[in-house]
Amino acid sequence: MAPVIEVHDLHYHYEDGTAALGGIDFQLAEGEAVALLGPNGSGKTTFALHLNGLLRGRGSVKVCGLEVNKENAVVIRRKIGLVFQDSDSQLFMPTVIDDVSFGPLNQGLDPREAAERALAALERVGMASAAGKAPYHLSAGEKKRVAIAGVLAMQPSILVLDEPTTFLDPPAQQALISVLGGLPQAKILITHDMPFAQALCTRAVFFEKGKIAGEGTVSELVERFGWNGNLRQ
Amino acid sequence: MHHVVLDQWSRRASPLHRRDPRSKIIPLLIFLVVLATAHRLLPAISAGLFAMLCTALLWARVPLADVLARACLVLPFTLVFAGVSWIAGDPARAEALVMKSYLSALAVLLVVSTTPMPLLLRGIELLGAPRFLLMVTQFLYRYLFVISEEAQHMRKAAVSRGGSFRAAAGALAVLFARSYKQAGEIHNAMLARGFQGRFRPLSAPHFHAADAAFLVCASSAPVILRIALERFV
Question: pTM for the full model?
Answer without folding.
Answer: 0.73
